[in-house]
């Protein structure tokens, strides 16, 4: 099955404020009917990068069988990690980067890799806040979640 996932993350007062993620999952079933699902969640204290990662994780974890996925994100952090093979280098170096510095958000990178594992995923960058309807909707989902009253604890903020 072919699936399209759109994602966005947001943080207020990055890195010490609340944040949220928004995800849209879209697919067309065997009868030609399009199905769209939306996901969002908010955290009390987090970072924008963590919310960008969570948006991708939630979309991939929602899939119940192996799929061919096109995942759109306005986060170059997420897209370049895969398309420019940053992750391969980080893993080879024991989750270190550059000057032997630890990679941030390792907990979420590992979770994203596990969620991606059973799928054929293509990561595509889309310019944020540029009128792309699904990206704009994900932004609304993310910011609404960040501003909501039912925020979870993000136990690892780096």
CATH superfamily: Ribonuclease H-like superfamily/Ribonuclease H
N-C termini distance? 36 Å
* Beta-strand proportion: 25-35%
Mean pLDDT across residues: 95
The CATH topology assignment is Nucleotidyltransferase, domain 5
* Helical residues, percent: 25-40%
* Uncertain stretches of 5 or more adjacent residues: none
| Tally of DSSP helical segments | 5
Query: How many discrete domains?
Result: 1
Order the strands across the largest sheet as they lie in space. Answer: 3-2-1-4-7
Element string (H = helix, E = strand): EEEHEHHEEHEH
How would you describe the shape? globular
CATH architectural name:
2-Layer Sandwich
Enzyme class: hydrolase
Function: Endonuclease that specifically degrades the RNA of RNA-DNA hybrids.
Catalytic activity: Endonucleolytic cleavage to 5'-phosphomonoester
GO molecular function: magnesium ion binding; nucleic acid binding; RNA-DNA hybrid ribonuclease activity
Quick take:
With 158 residues, the chain is an alpha/beta fold. The chain is built from 5 helices and 7 strands.
Description:
By secondary structure, the chain is α/β, with parallel strands linked by helices. It has one domain (2-146): Nucleotidyltransferase, domain 5. Helix content is 34%, strand content 29%. The chain contains 5 helices and 7 strands. It has helices spanning 48-61, 76-83, 86-92, 106-116, 133-146, and strands at residues 2-11, 19-28, 34-43, 68-73, 96-97, 101-102, 120-125. It has a 5-stranded mixed sheet. A two-stranded antiparallel sheet has the order 5-6. Helix 1 runs parallel beside helix 4. The termini are far apart.
């Amino acid at each position: 099955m072919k699936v399209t996932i759109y994602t966005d993350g947001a943080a207020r007062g990055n890195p010490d404020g609340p944040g949220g993620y928004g995800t849209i999952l879209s697919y067309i079933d065997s009868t030609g009917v399009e199905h769209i699902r939306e996901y969002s969640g908010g955290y009390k204290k987090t970072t924008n990068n963590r919310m960008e990662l969570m948006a991708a994780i939630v979309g991939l974890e929602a899939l119940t069988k192996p799929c061919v996925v096109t995942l759109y994100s306005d986060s170059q952090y997420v897209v370049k990690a895969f398309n420019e093979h940053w992750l391969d280098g980080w893993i080879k170096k024991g989750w270190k980067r550059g000057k032997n510095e630890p990679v941030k958000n390792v907990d979420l990178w590992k979770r994203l890799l596990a969620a991606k594992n059973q799928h054929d995923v293509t990561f595509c960058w889309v310019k944020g806040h540029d009128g792309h309807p699904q990206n704009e909707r994900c932004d609304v989902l993310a910011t609404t979640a960040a501003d909501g009253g039912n925020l979870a604890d993000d136990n690892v903020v780096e």
